[in-house]
From TrEMBL:
Claim: Transcription regulation is one of the keywords in the record: yes
GO biological process: response to stress
Alphabetic keyword roster: DNA-binding, Transcription, Transcription regulation
SMART domains assigned: HTH_MARR
Domain HTH marR-type: 1-141
Keyword Hydrolase annotated: no
Example GO molecular function: DNA-binding transcription factor activity
Protein's name according to its UniProt entry: MarR family transcriptional regulator
UniProt xrefs under InterPro entries: HTH_MarR-typ, MarR/SlyA-like, WH-like_DNA-bd_sf, WH_DNA-bd_sf
Residue spans crossing the bilayer: none
Length: 159
């Protein structure tokens, strides 16, 4: 029987590796569509968070510093996938919208990633996923209220 301390240690050790491995396999899936994994993240999160999301909010969700995100948004904008607009309620802020081409690409990427998730997680039960989500909730709670604010509302999750 494995002790709870040992399981906790193994979980946290594997968490970082699993994140890296997921990025590797999902990166391979999105690059087939002519977009880098780095650019795919902001594109997908603009779609998931909703049109008009503020640039600073997007930076928090994708875990990028402002300057790094600006470079990616410049690339997405130059590719005709994203539009920046001055936020109507705060002229110092930018809100982001997908163009028609950006929305079409994001839709294709979401479908591709949905198929990838189905393949990778085949055989894992709903109960197992619910247990993992409870663990992630515990991590978020320990990180503080700011971390909870970054959770994607259920209605914003892709199908």
């Amino acid at each position: 029987m494995t002790s709870i301390d040992s399981l906790r240690f193994m979980f946290t050790s594997h968490l970082l590796l699993a994140g890296k491995q997921w990025r590797q396999i999902s990166q391979a899936a999105v690059t087939e569509y002519g977009i880098s994994a780095a650019s795919a993240g902001p594109l997908l999160f603009i779609r998931r968070l909703g049109e008009g999301v503020r640039q600073i909010t997007l930076a928090e969700y994708v875990g990028l510093e402002g300057a790094s995100l600006v470079r990616l948004l410049d690339q997405l904008s130059a590719a005709g996938l994203v539009r920046r607009e001055v936020d109507a309620s705060d002229r110092r802020a930018n809100s982001l919208r997908l163009t028609e081409a950006g929305n079409a690409l994001a839709e294709k990427l979401e479908a591709e990633l949905s198929q990838l998730r189905a393949k990778v997680f085949e055989g894992i039960s709903v109960q197992d996923f619910e247990a993992v989500m409870r663990v992630f909730d515990a991590i978020s709670a320990a990180a503080g209220p700011d971390a909870d604010a970054l959770r994607i509302p259920p209605q914003k999750h892709p199908a």
